[in-house]
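Hi there,

I know you've been waiting on this one. I reran it after we fixed the sequence typo, so this is the corrected version. Both the input and the resulting structure follow.
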Amino acid sequence: MMIVAENLEQTYLSGGRPLVVLRDINLAINAQEFVAITGPSGSGKTTLLGLLAGLDRPTRGVVRLDGQDLGPLSEDARARLRAEKVGFVFQTFQLLPTLTAIENVLVPIELHGDGVGKLERAKDLLAGVGLADRTHHYPAQLSGGEQQRVAIARAFANGPKILFADEPTGSLDAETGHTVIDLLVALNRGAGTTLVLVTHDPALANLANRTIRLAGGAII
């Protein structure tokens, strides 16, 4: 099992009163599995993704990534674990506007400390997403679809075991979104990565090996 959640709950204070966002979440995701998380707005999809990725701590329960219990880990230790094993693709791309496409892809490689052949790796990743001729363009010079392709290349930069994608086509038109998701799925399959995709789009969810549906903060 690459990802395991047991008795997961997330509660926030809202107006001085507890607001339960997730309740009694139990799931297991196999290595190299493609799982879609779906549900209506406010059902807890993004909150669950953040907990599974170790970006936030649950109010109750356990999350294990590749056998590692995230609970006892410090913030720094969880950040190191993510740098080593996790890639992210977000709806809003999250590219650094002052860096070129290739510089954005280089960021996680340099942070990880793997300097051997890093420039060639970044070039290969951008070529793999069809942007060999856009390496020195800044995000503002790229279309939305091109920016998301840079984000996908960056997500694969460190050869992650797990890829989390939060509404990766939500900011794109339908045609561009289909192109981007086909690319993401193909790259993921080729890399043998575990892919967890949050989406409200049934067509995207149908591409997954399995769908986990949320409603009211619980798996239905």
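Quick highlight: Helices lie at 45-52, 75-85, 101-112, 118-128, 144-155, 174-191, 202-205.

Best,
R. S.
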